[in-house]
């Protein structure tokens, strides 16, 4: 990193912040000490007071963790795009990693983090978009941007936890606390990718270049007005660290897909992410219609050859009017929609008479989860706050039974998916407390029979008895 900075044709000073004295390199300033001696995490916030003291001494301020490579081309690209941005916008970077086989990994693209298709904007010859994960372990600020951040009162702050962890918050405060919006220049995306040199997340977190490029191409289509934008439902909760949000890049779960009945010939998947599960089902010979979370992630599902229908719930129902499906799959979505009962019942007309509904939800009645929410979300009141305040419904086996019953379905079974660490307790209690230990709940439901159906079944039973 130091060699790279010293190769640049700028009047540039390098400062290393450390908790202990260390020999870095000749001419490099080392500042030793924690802003708060009792809090080791305060070290990652130390650069802020340094920048504040030297705000009039430099034209540009660069903050990075110790494994992010910033190059001269990054700086020049940042300055070019900054010249055409609005006062409350900052162009930012995304991290990439290189795997052992030379593959490129994008670790910031994971979990609930996604591109907002509605944010695509043109600034002069550049096209920019907002990615909901502002963390890139680095940022650049011009002197004027730094002044604005300081004046906001949200820049020089103590270590804190919010949308991100304590360490990540130090590198995202300009966007989350100072009134700026981070935009990525997607039309020149390679100029805004920085190497995370530890490559620690390869094959663990993130997506690889082919899927990443599909998303960028979809955003560019939106930018040129050749594609419309849509979203199915809000996917991020308002809880700390956005707990229980929808994962856009869900891995295939054999325990879920194994519950699709063998006699089913068609599956409707509500809330499809990048489509790995739906692709697996399609390869098994089923007709799969995927309803993606939004029109950007839809491009990944389409790239897998899946049939997709985009829009909100009302639009999707209208587009599918007259079709019938043997199985409805809703993976980690019901707890996030405003009215779960309305969603289930509104798609009943698209389901065959002997249909199966499979729904996966997080278990918010889980004992460790309850303890965490009580600790992090202002006590018991945090458990009782409304969907409007939290963006998530409280889910438990009892709640799920109530939802499906009101929607005209009966639950055949609720499966508890326990974390590995709960195995010993499961054995000691003979599974009696599984519903309190499970991380996820998996519902299998069928259409509830009407009184007419029940009467017909009773008559058939009596007829069989008389015949015998």
Q: Would you kindly provide a written description of the structure presented here, covering whatever features stand out?
A:
The chain has 468 residues and is an alpha/beta fold. The protein folds into 2 domains: 2-223, Spore Coat Polysaccharide Biosynthesis Protein SpsA, Chain A (Alpha-Beta Complex), CATH 3.90.550; 242-454, Vaccinia Virus protein VP39 (Rossmann fold, 3-Layer(aba) Sandwich). Helix content is 31%, strand content 23%. It contains 19 helices and 20 strands. The protein has helices spanning 2-6, 46-53, 72-82, 143-152, 166-170, 173-176, 209-223, 254-257, 276-283, 298-303, 313-319, 340-346, 367-376, 380-384, 387-390, 397-406, 423-428, 434-437, 451-467, and strands at residues 15-18, 29-32, 60-64, 68-69, 89-91, 94-98, 104-106, 115-123, 126-131, 138-142, 181-185, 193-196, 207-208, 266-272, 287-292, 307-308, 325-331, 351-362, 409-417, 440-447. The strands form 5 sheets. Strands 16-15-14-17-18-20-19 form a 7-stranded mixed sheet, sandwiched between helices. Strands 4-12-6-7-13 form a 5-stranded mixed sheet. It has a 4-stranded mixed sheet with strand order 5-11-9-8. It is elongated.
Fraction of residues in helix: 25-40%
Identify the strand order in the major beta sheet. Answer: 16-15-14-17-18-20-19
Structural class: alpha/beta
Query: How big is the Rg?
Result: 26 Å
Q: Biggest β-sheet, characterized?
A: 7 strands, mixed
CATH class of the largest domain: Alpha Beta
Shape: elongated
């Amino acid at each position: 990193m130091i060699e790279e900075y010293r190769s640049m044709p700028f009047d540039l000073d390098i400062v290393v912040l450390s908790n202990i004295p260390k020999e870095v390199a000749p001419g490099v300033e080392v500042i030793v000490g924690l802003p708060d001696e009792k809090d080791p995490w305060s070290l990652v916030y130390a650069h802020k007071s340094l920048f504040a003291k030297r705000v009039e001494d430099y034209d540009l301020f660069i903050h990075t963790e110790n494994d992010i490579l910033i190059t001269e081309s990054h700086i020049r690209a940042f300055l070019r795009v900054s010249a055409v941005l609005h006062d409350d916008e900052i162009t930012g970077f995304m991290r990439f990693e290189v795997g052992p086989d030379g593959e490129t990994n994008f670790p910031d693209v994971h979990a609930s983090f996604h591109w907002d298709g509605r944010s695509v904007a043109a600034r002069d010859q550049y096209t920019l978009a907002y990615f909901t994960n502002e963390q890139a372990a680095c940022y650049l600020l011009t002197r004027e941007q730094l002044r604005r951040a300081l004046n906001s009162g949200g820049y020089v702050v103590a270590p804190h936890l919010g949308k991100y962890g304590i360490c990540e918050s130090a590198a995202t405060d300009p966007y989350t606390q100072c009134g700026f919006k981070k935009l990525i220049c997607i039309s020149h995306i390679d100029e805004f990718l920085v190497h995370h040199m530890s490559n620690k997340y390869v094959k663990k977190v993130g997506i690889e270049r082919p899927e990443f490029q599909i998303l960028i191409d979809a955003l560019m289509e939106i930018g040129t007005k050749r594609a419309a934008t849509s979203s199915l439902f809000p996917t991020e909760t308002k809880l700390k660290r956005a707990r229980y949000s929808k994962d856009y890049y869900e891995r295939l779960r054999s325990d879920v897909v194994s519950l699709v009945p063998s006699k089913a010939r068609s599956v409707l998947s509500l809330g499809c992410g990048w489509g790995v599960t739906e692709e697996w089902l399609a390869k098994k010979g089923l007709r799969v219609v995927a309803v993606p979370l939004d029109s950007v992630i839809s491009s990944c599902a389409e790239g897998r050859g899946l049939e997709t229908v985009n829009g909100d719930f009302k639009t999707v129902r209208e587009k599918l009017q007259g079709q019938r499906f043997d199985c409805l799959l809703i993976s980690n979505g019901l707890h996030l929609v405003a009215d779960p009962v309305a969603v289930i019942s509104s798609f009943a007309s698209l389901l065959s008479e002997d249909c199966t509904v499979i729904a996966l939800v997080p278990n918010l009645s889980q004992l460790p989860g309850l303890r965490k929410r009580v600790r992090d979300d202002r006590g018991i009141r945090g458990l009782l706050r409304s969907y409007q305040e939290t963006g998530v419904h409280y889910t438990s086996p009892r709640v799920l039974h109530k939802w499906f019953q009101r929607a005209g379905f009966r639950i055949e079974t609720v499966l508890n998916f326990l974390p590995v660490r709960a195995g010993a307790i499961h054995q000691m209690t003979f599974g009696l407390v599984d519903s309190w230990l499970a991380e996820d709940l998996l519902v299998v439901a069928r259409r509830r029979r009407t009184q007419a159906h029940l009467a017909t079944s009773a008559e058939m039973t009596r007829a069989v008895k008389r015949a015998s």
